[in-house]
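quick one if you have a minute, typing this from the bus. theres a chain ive been looking at and ive put its sequence and its fold in token form underneath. please have a look and point out which stretches look like helix strand or loop to you. anything you notice is useful, everything is just below.

***
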Amino acid sequence: MRSVRVGRIGGIDVRVDASALVIAGLISWALSDGVLPEAAPGYATALYWVVGVVTALAFLASLLAHEVSHSVVARRRGIRVRDITLWLLGGVATIEGEPKNPRDEFAMAIAGPALSMGIGATAVLLAAVAGFAGGPDLVTTALWWLGSINIVLALFNVVPAAPLDGGRLLRAWLWKRHGDRARATRSAARAGVVFGQVLIGLGIFELWMGLGVGGLWSILLGWFVLGAARAEEAELALEQATHHVRVRDVMTPDPVTVPAATSVASLVDDYVLRYRCSAFPVTSPAGEVTGLATLTRARAVPRARRATLTAADIAWPASEVTRAGPNEPLWPVLRRAAGGDGRILVFEGARLAGIVSPSDIARLVQAAGPAGDRPGRAAA
């Protein structure tokens, strides 16, 4: 997801994807042009739009609150939260780490739906009070809608299927019951695959019945759930493949570096083609690693500018590249690297000792096989 940072809450970056703004616009339009005029006729068009936009923004705020609740509970249990992103299908908190026990898993998972249910119940109660007191029916309708959608959100999220919060609750219960987190994760992910397929099937049926947008939305939700559930299965396989593996076991030692002043043209012709690598640490004249130049970034430079732009100009800044020590366990490092370029620079003290690329990890997983058995290692 390509998103823009809009602020911080409690030290956690909050980001908004463009698709979230599209959804806010569609909700505003649906409320202003349909729901509000039908339920509360007689107001000016401009007023419908004002209330519709405010209600849509309040809904986005409730999605953010849902994710903040997950994040607060995670941080209280010692788990780092990188950021929260609002996007097309709601919100997602990037949590770096795993709960230590089923109790922590349950607490983290239930926080979001509980808050959404609380917001929904509060909004419905306010709507009932406003209606009983003879308040403006336009405001009452907006509160009813906001409360109802949050209650629906809470109920949908507790469906016991990964990656939904209900899938986390299912995993917590199975983990406690069997004492095996991997087994619980696999079961929750498989439930997510089934649920995603059901949603897609339901959407196709709705389209066949001529329900239009509702069917497309079900298919979109199903596609997301199915893809995310399969991603969790793949992540579990990766975790099992990297069990007890250290960074030095998969890294490419003593990688070729490129001076910061090297032109992009020379980077492609003299380094990429010669060494058949797609990433090179960039070094200053003093030998300090200042970034990571990749073939992807070099290709994005127009040919006419490749002779003038340098490796330093196009490199990922060193601060944005995951760093690790050679003796660190690999799996926690991979979790830290998630969401970035995917490459890891390995340092022994101040010396660059190696680099880990996605292809290195892919070879490890292939060697491990479907059961997640470890390949042999040359060094402990």
